[in-house]
Write a structure and sequence with these properties.
- By secondary structure, the protein is an alpha+beta fold.
- It folds into two domains: 6-82, Beta-grasp domain (Ubiquitin-like (UB roll)), CATH 3.10.20; 91-192, [2Fe-2S]-binding domain (DNA polymerase, domain 1, Orthogonal Bundle).
- It is built from five helices and five strands; from the N terminus they run ββαβββαααα.
- Helix 2 (91-98) crosses helix 5.
- It is globular.
- The structure holds FE2/S2 (inorganic) cluster (FES) (2 copies).
- Residues 7-83 form the 2Fe-2S ferredoxin-type domain.
- Residues 179-202 are annotated as: Disordered.
- Pfam families: Fer2, Fer2_2.
- It comes from Streptomyces montanisoli.
């Protein structure tokens, strides 16, 4: 009996259910771009090396060129087209615009998706390879330029816009931290020092 080489799958992309037939070898990147016309995610290397195709899968960043579309069935996929809130840009998008975090823009969708996850990973206390003290009791390290560069190191920019990209990620992280502090304040929480380890110092 011949094995099936294609299937009809349902992907949850940017809050919508999208049903499509795919060859089992189709990557998530090709499914997004060629089947669903979501061309914001870019194909740079197609080998997991450049980060241009970065999307969020269940809130975690992933290079969509190394993921089969069939493996993404049932998971929440967010692409650059889905990060804004209606007409209001995501704070990371806004920071990239305000601080010129791009030149040609080809790497930018991947940079932004990656930065959104970086900020959440840092807020959750995840260390990086640049973190000096990784003991759990040390808390999250300051999100300084070295930390941002390390955490964003999977996203290459052939235009070399790195200086502005680091600044944009730092600004967006500051904004996210301020928002989080406001939320906690509104909830009557004691913020003094509670999140002291998450300072942004880029
Ligand atoms: S296109 Fe996916 S990492 Fe380069
Ligand atoms: S802005 Fe051109 S590749 Fe990054």
């Amino acid at each position: 009996m011949a094995l099936a080489t294609s299937s009809t799958i349902t992907l949850h992309v940017n809050g919508e259910r999208r049903t499509l037939p795919v060859d089992h070898r189709t990557t998530l990147l090709d499914a997004l771009r060629d089947h669903l016309e979501l061309t914001g995610s870019k194909k740079g290397c197609d080998h997991g090396q450049c980060g241009a195709c970065t999307v969020l899968i269940d809130g975690r960043r992933a290079v969509s060129c190394l993921q089969f579309a069939v493996a993404a069935e049932g998971r929440e996929v967010t692409t650059i087209e889905g990060v804004a809130d209606g007409d209001t840009l995501h704070p990371v998008q806004q920071a990239f615009i305000d601080l010129d975090g791009y030149q040609c823009g080809y790497c930018t969708p991947g940079q932004i998706c990656s930065a959104i996850a970086v900020i959440e990973e840092h807020a959750a206390g995840w260390p990086s390879a640049a973190t000096e003290d990784v003991r759990p009791e040390a808390g999250a390290p300051p999100l300084d330029a070295d930390e941002i560069r390390e955490r964003m190191s999977g996203n290459l920019c052939r235009c070399g816009a790195y200086v502005s990209i680091v600044q944009a990620v730092a600004r967006a992280a500051e904004a996210a931290q301020g928002e989080s502090a406001q939320d906690k304040s509104a909830q009557g929480g004691d913020l003094a020092g509670a999140e002291a380890g998450t300072a942004v110092t880029a």
